[in-house]
Write a structure and sequence with these properties.
Chain lengths: 158, 596
């Protein structure tokens, strides 16, 4: 049965062409693919395997080793809640619990409308602002539980 | 001075995320609108370190130190200071609310006792402009390494400086370079470890963001010394700003002939490339990092052979941490004698720390080796938040240990930290107060190690999980006294038998908390009590009838709901139904809800 091949943009193809001959560049190519799709779809990994002539198992071995690479599609808005030590001490876990209860999701689940998912992340590196929540490129510092409904509402589509 | 005023805006990640960039752009726009754009230059610099009070803006030549600035303040800074020459008093850093006196930067407690070598250019220059780096003696170290010194003499100079690796065990840098230099082989590599994965540490990120050229320069010096022609910077993908600044720095260095073929006409070739990490803590371990650089799963390999003999692609490789490299350019520029005067007998130079947790002034600090923890926590850090009692300071992150009150007067050196069951490792310094529970902290770090263990060797893969389960049991109130002995036994086995330092040090937080706070563990086990109220299953909420005025706010906030009571009468919590969310505790304004 012929399978429809996943679409890669011209830029992505050019990037892979540039990097595939460099030694040890698999991780760089995976970063670029995730940047394009917000995660690494299986079809994309398969296509990459064909392009670079590497077994799919080896590529999956690398994808699943590193926390940064995702194999499932995250919500449109990712709530990255920092669980670095400073944020943990100042209540990062409470923010996660509260967000899960507001959005009615657990762990890596995505809300039914595909709008939100929660990601507990390791140290965003602004410990002075602990606890920190990041949505897209917006950083919210010294967040309290009470502020969460309002922050989340801002990203909910009207 | 070409300009009447210079305005320095902090461009570190901390300040940037509290609208630092908007302040920068608004200042430029306001200068234009108010017709003074030729009188003032607005510069975005690296981290000032005082993250607690960010975003920070500094105006020269008056040395005005503005804290917690908002974009809306830009208009006033331009109108008042640039046009009328008057400082904006309300934005100035003040010692306390009441005083209105300006405090000179050098008199701010946070900066006293600090000594900046690694962070010498952070908050001073524009990190995206190579000329500003050069103006501050930048690349003079490289010039000396290329034309004045032979590789032998560079090694000799480093030996005299006494510099030791800042990433972990403190291996002498000169020796590492010398071993690699003498290792047989034509192809050699220089690698910079910028995979700062330790939660609560951001010194390396700030160093790169604030002064990327110091890393580039030092790596070229290293390459020339050991005979390498290629270098890689392995950096966390989670540090976009640092990556961007490194890219700019490398591009500018190429344009100036400092990277590429025939550097400065010396006949020596060297080039640098950036490779991204992908969120694996174990990749901070050098052999795992090299595996990852080769595009594989980042699992450590046994040493020896050491990377100095067989490193990247089996070739001799020098791998140093960001902070180690940042020291090298300045040692080569100012000389080994200058550097060797800083610090103690065996630990030379300075150390950067990220001061976070329950501390008044969280931020990035750099102190000479030999400074005591007490000076860092209480003088620089301004003591504990909200007047709480100091409990301990965790250094070295998930690999380090807790240091308690009685050891606060120990001078910081490689040896003293190891003796205290901690390590220099990274420079995360997390301050804990009486409201933190050591069992909870130990469990937190162990959960981190369970997640991050690569699974290659059994002691780490199985040991971390077993220790975590026992800690979980204790924190749920189901522990027995023998569990402590079990923890110690497993911990010691892991320390001895693990393949790399991740497993080898994963037990440190647990072992050191058991050592110093055995009684806290015993309270969980014997009395089923968590004094700090952090272990949720052990907490009981009650309402103090004497303090309760019966306002009913707790009953309204309770999600279960399990709080009942008549209006203006003391309320009661039904313990059987309480889910211990703590809403009532936060809601009560009269302190009537108590945690037990």
């Amino acid at each position: 049965m012929p399978v429809q091949e996943i679409q890669f943009t011209k830029e992505l193809i050019a990037y892979i062409d540039e990097w595939k001959s460099k030694p040890g560049s698999l991780i760089m190519m995976l970063h670029r693919i995730q940047e394009e799709f917000s995660y690494i779809p299986r079809e994309a990994a398969e296509r990459l395997a064909r392009i670079v002539g590497m077994p799919l198992a080896k590529i999956y071995g690398v994808i699943t080793f590193y926390h940064y690479f995702k194999t499932t599609k995250p919500g449109k808005n990712r709530l990255a809640i920092c669980l670095g030590t400073a944020c943990y001490l100042r209540g990062g876990q409470d923010l996660i619990d509260e967000s899960e209860s507001i959005l009615n999701v657990k762990g890596e689940e995505v809300t039914d409308d595909g709008q939100f998912s929660i990601d507990a992340v390791r140290c965003l590196g602004c410990c002075g602002l602990a606890p920190v929540l990041m949505i897209g490129n917006d950083v919210y510092g010294k967040v309290t539980k009470d502020q969460l409904p309002e922050i989340i509402a801002k990203y909910r589509k009207a | 001075m070409a300009y009447k005023n210079y305005i320095l805006v902090c461009g570190g990640t901390g300040c940037e995320s509290s609208r630092g960039d908007e302040i920068f752009r608004t200042l430029i726009k306001e200068a234009e609108l108010q017709g003074v754009k030729n009188d003032v230059q607005v510069v975005k610099t690296g981290c000032f370190g005082f993250c607690e009070k960010g975003p920070i803006v500094k105006v020269l030549p008056q040395e005005s130190f503005y804290v917690e600035v908002k974009p809306e303040d830009a208009k006033e800074i331009i109108a008042e200071q640039v046009i009328k020459g008057r400082e904006v008093k309300r934005l100035l850093y003040k010692k306390d609310q009441a005083s209105s006196d300006k405090v000179k930067i050098e008199d701010i407690d946070f900066y006293q006792k600090q000594f900046r070598v690694v962070l010498r250019n952070c908050g001073v220059i524009n990190p995206e402009n190579i000329d500003e780096y050069i103006a501050r003696e930048g690349y003079t170290g490289l010039e000396r390494a290329l034309f004045k010194f032979s590789p032998d003499e560079v090694v000799e100079e480093l030996k005299k400086s006494g510099l030791r690796g800042r990433g972990g065990a403190g291996f002498p840098t000169w020796l590492k370079w010398d071993l690699t230099r003498k290792a047989p082989g034509d192809v050699k590599y220089v690698v910079c470890n910028a995979d700062e994965g330790d939660p609560g540490a951001y010194m390396n990120r700030s160093t790169i963001e604030g002064d990327p050229h110091s890393i580039v320069e030092s790596m070229i010096i290293c390459g020339r010394t050991i005979g390498a022609h290629e270098g890689y910077i392995y950096i966390r993908a989670e540090y976009p700003l640092a990556i961007e600044r490194l890219k700019i720095a490398i591009r500018q260095a190429r344009e100036y002939g400092l990277l590429g073929k025939d550097i400065l006409g010396s006949g020596y070739d060297f080039d640098l490339d950036i490779r991204l990490g992908a969120g694996a803590f174990v990749c901070g371990e050098e052999t795992a990092l090299l595996q990852s650089l080769e595009g594989k799963r980042g699992m450590p390999v046994p040493k020896p052979p050491f990377p100095a003999i067989k490193g990247l692609w089996q070739k001799p490789t020098v791998i140093n941490n960001v902070e180690t490299f940042a020291n090298i350019s300045v040692i080569m520029a100012k000389g080994a004698e200058w550097f060797a005067k800083i610090g103690t007998e065996k630990s030379k130079g300075t150390k950067t720390f990220a001061l976070t947790g329950k501390i008044n002034n969280s931020g990035l600090v750099e102190v000479p080796m030999g400074t005591t923890l007490r000076e860092i926590v209480f003088d620089i850090g301004g003591g504990i938040r909200n007047g709480k009692k100091f409990k301990g300071v965790q250094t070295g992150g998930p690999s380090g240990g807790i240091i308690t009150e009685e050891s606060l007067d120990q001078p910081i050196t490689y040896e003293s930290l190891t003796a205290l069951g901690s390590m220099m490792g990274s420079g995360g310094m997390i301050i804990m107060d009486e409201d933190d529970c050591v069992v909870d902290i130990a469990k937190f770090y162990m959960a981190f190690c369970v997640d991050e263990s690569c699974g290659k060797c059994a002691p780490c893969r199985i040991g971390t999980k077993q220790m975590h389960d026992i800690l979980e049991k204790i924190s749920n109130g189901n522990g027995v006294e023998e569990d402590l002995a079990k923890l110690e036994k497993i911990g010691k086995a892991m320390t001895k038998a693990s393949l790399c330092m991740l497993g080898g040090s994963a037990a440190n937080p647990t072992l050191s908390t058991i050592k110093h706070f055995r009684e806290d563990y015993m309270e969980h086990i014997r009395d089923h009590k968590c004094r700090a109220g952090k272990c949720k299953s052990l907490v009981v909420y009650e309402i103090d009838a004497a303090k309760c005025i019966g306002c009913g706010i707790c009953a309204r906030r309770c999600p279960v709901p399990c709080i009942t009571g008549e209006k203006k009468q003391p309320h009661v919590i039904d313990r059987a139904r309480c889910i211990k969310c703590g809403e009532c505790f936060t809601a009560c304004k009269f302190g009537a809800v108590v945690k037990k």
